[in-house]
Specification:
By secondary structure, the protein is of the alpha/beta class. It is 40% helix and 14% strand. Strands 2-1-13-12-11-3-10-9-4-8-7 form an eleven-stranded mixed sheet. The chain has a two-stranded antiparallel sheet with strand order 5-6. A hairpin with a 2-residue loop joins strand 5 and strand 6.
């Protein structure tokens, strides 16, 4: 009220005399956001260092985001393995492809891709393979009889123990249950006999089937078991293996390993796009390829290797296949192997029959990249992976090309950048929907630097 103005002025004057000016009046400042962002530098999360490959930009700070599991291993990463999650059409495919192309810029890198998706009769990685002068290894049961591409589960390059473990896995996956002791003994006897007697050539699956149907008495005498009993125990096993020899999977694994598969090529692509992804053939095939690579590809030669598996739920969701890959991950880590598993939904694996094995493999993945998911799926993912609340809340709002990255607890939001040189190789007709509008503009310089 006007009558109190002199009193108010007197009070303010007395307060200022005792304590100094109570308020400071500042003139407004006009500036740009580019200049003003320097005021908020403390809000920018620390990066992962400056050694490795460029992924894109950290969204909140605008800094370049650089990631390399081999550079970070032992310091910021306890394991070099990586899990990529997200709905279709949000950028997983373009991230995988540009990551591999950029890693191959280093001379000591080598990559194997299990390409489970495709268009127009070829796998999704076909363009990249062609650009690098690589011929994909196409495994197709419909054309395998007329082709020369075969992987032999009994390849002498695989140890005897590894061969037996692989045979058990193939049978257990196909049967949907574990082998009982008697069937396991029949398989062990047949394999041991074939391994010891077939020395003038590569043993093949037909040799195992023959010995299961007609066990040799000498092989059963050590356990004081009748040969006819062993034949009965192994009959179901023989029928399962016969499927690889004369059934719907024939032609891919029923002969010696193809001579001339270049395991020293910088990029090796197994084209699985002709395999029905919902059939039992896919996990069987992945198990065979995984074990074959374990014994023929991973070597102590100081090369850094990347094993990228699309549709990886085929591996993680089968207890028997997951156990094989769990061993591969533990073994490969000592020899410089980074395993990259790409799946659409975490629920595809954590709620399946192999929940225990899936949890063990997920625990080994110290890097997790999550693209847009629906709110309910994002909350489930956050609980399983231990993501902070803010990250869980932002996942359903992410636009194509942007993902939450969790690198051993360092959580940031990253916009993936694709260079003009990579664009024709990365965006196939089907994958074109994964292109983010933000990738067409303002980050051209950073994108070009990624492959410079």
């Amino acid at each position: 009220m006007p009558g109190f103005e002199p009193l108010t002025a007197l009070t303010e004057a007395f307060t200022s005399f005792l304590f100094g000016k109570v308020e400071t009046t500042r003139l407004p400042v006009r500036t740009s956001t580019g200049q003003a962002q320097a005021v908020y530098l403390p809000t920018a999360a620390p990066g992962l260092g400056d050694s490795g490959v460029i992924i894109g930009r950290e969204v909140y700070s605008g800094k370049g985001y650089i990631y390399d599991p081999f550079q970070l291993y032992g310091q910021q990463l306890p394991a070099p393995h990586w899990l990529v999650l997200g709905e279709s059409g949000n950028g997983k495919s373009s991230l995988e492809k540009t990551y591999v192309l950029r890693q191959l810029r280093f001379r000591d890198r080598q990559v194997v891709v299990l390409d489970a998706q495709g268009e127009d009769g070829v796998g999704e990685w076909n363009l990249i393979a062609q650009a690098l002068g690589i011929t994909p290894i196409r495994l197709d049961p419909m054309a395998a009889i007329d082709s020369d591409i075969r992987l032999n589960p009994l390849d002498p390059a695989i140890t005897s123990t590894g061969q037996l473990a692989l045979l058990r896995t193939i049978i257990e996956v196909a049967m949907g249950r574990g082998l009982d002791e008697r069937a396991g003994f029949a398989l062990k006897v047949a394999h041991a006999y074939v391994h010891d007697t077939v020395t003038d050539r590569q043993p093949v699956l037909t040799d195992i089937v023959e010995r299961l149907r007609h066990p040799v008495i000498e092989s059963t005498e050590t356990m004081n078991v009748d040969a006819e009993d062993v034949r009965n125990w192994g009959l179901d096993v023989a029928l399962v293996i016969d499927r690889l020899v004369d059934g719907d999977l024939r032609g891919m694994f029923d002969g010696p390993t193809t001579v001339g598969i270049d395991l020293d090529a910088p990029l090796i692509v197994f084209d699985l796009s002709h395999i029905d992804r919902n059939s039992i053939a896919m996990p069987i095939l992945m198990a065979i390829v995984g074990v074959w690579l374990e014994h023929t590809w991973i070597r102590p030669d100081r090369k850094k290797r990347i094993f990228l598996v699309e549709e990886a739920w085929h591996i993680i969701n089968s207890p028997f296949v997951a156990q094989l890959f769990q061993r591969l991950l533990k073994f490969g880590r000592r020899l410089g192997l980074s395993f990259v598993a790409v799946v659409h939904h975490l629920s595809d694996v954590v709620d399946g029959a192999a929940a225990k094995e899936a949890a063990a493999i997920l625990k080994m993945a110290s890097t997790r990249t999550i693209y847009m998911q629906k709110a309910e799926e994002a909350r489930a993912t956050g609980r399983v992976l231990g993501l902070p609340r803010w990250a869980v809340e932002i996942i359903p709002t992410l636009t194509p090309g942007i993902a939450v990255w969790d690198v051993n607890g360092n959580v940031q939001v990253v916009k993936h950048i694709v260079s003009e040189a990579e664009r024709p190789l990365v965006y196939t007709d089907r994958a074109m929907t994964e292109e983010s509008p933000v990738e067409r503009g303002g980050d051209k310089q950073l994108a070009d630097d990624a492959v410079a």
